Amino acid sequence: MPLYNTPPMDDACYSALKAKDARFDGCFYTGVTSTGIYCRPVCRVRTPRRENCRFFAHAAQAEQAGFRPCLRCRPELAPHAPAQSHDPDARTWSIQDASSILAGQAARMLDTPEAWSEAAPTVQRLAERLGVSDRHLRRIFDAQFGVSPVQYLQTRRLLSAKQLLTDTALAVTQVARLSGFASVRRFNAAFAEHYALNPTQLRREGAARGPGTVDAGIHVKLAYRPPYDADAMLQFFATRQIAGIEEISLASGHLRLGKTLAVQDGNKRYTGWLVASFDVSRSQVDLRVSDSLCDVLPQVMARVRAMLDLDADPQAINNLLHARFPLGDGLRVPGALNGFELAVRAVLGQQITVAAARTLAMRLVERFGERVETPFAGLTRLFPTPAALADASGDGLGQLGIVKQRQAAIQAIASAMSDGSLQLHAGVDIPATIAALKALPGIGDWTAQYIAMRALRWPDAFPAGDVALHKALGVQDSRHPAKEAQAASQAWQPWRSYAVIRAWASLPAVARNAAKATITIK
User: How far apart are CA 244 and CA 365, in angstroms?
Assistant: First the structure.
């Protein structure tokens, strides 16, 4: 199924292809009939003739049509395609029909490894989670994306495997398992059927560095669509940096974020570190992950994409927000590697400044975070686990300067995460999760919306009661500033999270901190 049925839209894709325009990377793919290959818009090969080009919204569509991925531009590196409709008249998710929204939610769940830690995704399991029949799911998914859920997932798995084979030294058996294949035999058969290649043919000698070298770890690349203000993103993290668990460099040409992390996969827990370095000239992030996290590499890669908001579609966002926030075209919504960590830090930040919240978080990590071995002097601890904080005594938390109301909120979140009744990642039901958060003691709308914005990756979160937001929007002197802010925000759906980040960025740092100290909670 081609991306567009009208020649003008095909012509627009061809113009982007000729220009090698990175803004459209991952938004469409070009199948070249003379070669049988499909490419990203940024591919550096000679531009094919217009009559030989077919355009597709997703890699799965191109593969269903019989095209194989280009070995030069490597479609597996492209940012994920936006989940919303490609219809230029569909300005917001709120005016799309329910089937389109449901199909988009299904795709996001398939793209979130954490949503399937207990078992591999199937159409039946996906339909059950969405509360529809598998027949209905297949129908709406095909109508929205032009492929079935199985074809979509199969392409994701094959492209993931292709990247791991090309960029890393992982064994083929590991690659097959990490990519979601039940056996090496099935993996080899699928690879041969779709790509006419043996998996080992993609190996590049010396492409990956093994353990024991100066630059040890597993190396992969993650692309994004420009414009992207990498300086602003890392400055946001640097302002909130917690010693021991993260280390950020803002040096020109060396924009880098290092972090420790733990990943729970079923009954196993993996700990380690990662370093994400921006290569602005190529619109990509070079990611290095400790060998100890090898068995959960896809989850780590997905978390980094979410933390750095690498899959955002700036063109769609800027079309709606540029007029009101003209200086924020490159801003993204900072995410989190760990939803629980973000939620705890959000609670610690209630009613106090960013600096004060950072101090409390550092004390919490020092007291309850376990030690971890890394090659970096600044990365020595992990953020406390839900179990550790659920079992912490009130006196133990109180000695750190955490007041009782926040103690109760932190331990309620920790208990809910420990027993599995609460999950905080991009694959959850957003309204249900926000409601569950607000039902916990000490969690009001501001905190729930902030968690939704950063941990759940909801692009339409809006903390209407935020005082800094009121100042940025000029409604702080209104009788009902939250209502005024909420009313103004309707024009920015479905990108209100991005509007919030742009509004905050428009304020001087002193004003942001002063306003944050007056935020109220439930």
Answer: 8
Region of residue 476 (left: phi > 0; alpha: psi -120 to 50; beta: else): alpha
Compute CA distances 106 → 110, 111, 154, 454, whole Å.
Answer: 6, 9, 15, 20
Q: What is the pLDDT of residues 424-465, one digit of tens each?
A: 998 888 999 999 999 999 999 999 999 999 999 999 999 999
The DSSP element (H or E) to which 223 belongs, if any, is strand 218-223
Using an 8 Å Cβ cutoff, are 340 and 388 in contact? no
DSSP-derived 3-state class of residue 249: strand
In the three-class reduction of DSSP (H, G, I as helix; E, B as strand; rest coil), residue 304 is classed as helix
Sign of the CA dihedral with 221 first, then 226, 230, and 233 last: negative
- Taking the C-alpha atoms of residue 121 and residue 509, their distance in angstroms, rounded to an integer, is 44
d(CA 126, CA 374): 38
- Three-state DSSP at 87 gives coil
The partner residues of 143 in beta bridges, in order of sequence, read none
**What are the strands of the beta sheet with 218-223, ordered from one edge?**
218-223, 284-289, 268-279, 256-265, 246-249
Closest CA to 48 of 56, 60, 36: 36
Residue 181 makes CB contacts below 8 A (sequence gap 6+) with 157, 161, 187, 190
135 burial type by CB count under 10 A (0-12 exposed, 13-18 middle, 19+ buried):
exposed
Question: Using alpha carbons only, what angle is made at residue 273 by residues 349 and 291, rounded to the nearest 5 degrees?
Answer: 160
Q: What residues act catalytically?
A: 39, 466
Which residue carries 């791991």 as its tokens? 164
In angstroms, the Cα distances linking 134 to 128, 146, 148, 430 are: 8, 16, 11, 21
- Condensed to tens digits (0 to 9), the pLDDT of residues 26-35 reads 999 999 999 9
Question: Alpha-carbon distance 15 to 60, whole Å?
Answer: 22
**H/E element, 158:** helix 149-167
The predicted model scores a pTM of 0.89
Spatial distance between the Cα atoms of 377 and 9, rounded to a whole number of angstroms: 52
- Cis amide bond preceding 227, omega within 30: yes
Distance CA 433, CA 425 (A): 10
Residues 6+ away with beta carbon under 8 Å from 314: 23, 225, 226, 227, 228, 329, 330
Cα 54 to Cα 52: distance, rounded to the nearest angstrom: 7
